[in-house]
Amino acid sequence: MTKYQARLVGQSLATRVAYALVRGLLLLLSKVWFRASVSGREHLPRTGAYIIAPVHRSNIDTPLSAFVTARRVRFMGKDSLWKNRYIGVFLSMLGGFPVTRGSADLEALKRCVAVLDSGEPLVMFPEGTRQSGPTLHPLFDGPAYVAMKRGVPIVPVGIGGSERVMRKGSKMIWPHKCHVTIGQPIAVARSEGKLDRTKMADTTAELARRLQIVFDDARRRAGEAG
Questions:
Q1: In the chain, N or C terminus with fewer CB closer than 10 Å?
Q2: Average pLDDT per run of 10 along the chain, which is 226 residues long?
Q3: Is-above-0.90 flag for pTM?
Q4: Residue 194 counted as domain residue
Q5: Is 135:148 a contact under the CB 8 Å cutoff?
Q6: How far is 218 from 59, CA to CA, in rounded Å?
């Protein structure tokens, strides 16, 4: 493992304690402010690395994704967020790691693979940036690519209510109910050498199908239109 990879995966006890404290505080605030709830935890792999693939409708989707498991989860963020020392420390405590904005997508995916090599769950939003509405937008192949590189499962996660809590462009966090539905994982076989693009596309299509199902369920449980 390179020095960069060692810093990226951050295995120190202090880092884990800080993550547990920050996660616990955010979880408490979320339950009080928007009655956050989670269903389907029985679908999560108990050990090893896997990819958490949530829908993306709000900035609060990242902490909500961290509530699916007590284990530390990792997520990528644009490196400019780390320019502010305090914000950078806070994001690192939440399991974040920086990716250079405008860099090649392949470099970002390699960093995701390095995180999976540490054995930890990784959050990847397959829709990319925040979207709007009850229907999934076209998915990127990033989660399928990373999963095939390491043979880890992809767990579809629907998040209902988050768009009402904090819409794209809004700075306010409104007290609406949120629910997170965890779906059954998609088993992905490890591919050696050049990846099969057809299998990658098939995996992404299956993720889209399952993700819409859990998204619909999460929206229903959050009191949104069925």
A1: C
A2: 47 74 85 90 94 94 90 84 81 77 67 90 91 94 94 97 84 89 96 90 98 97 82
A3: no
A4: yes
A5: no
A6: 17
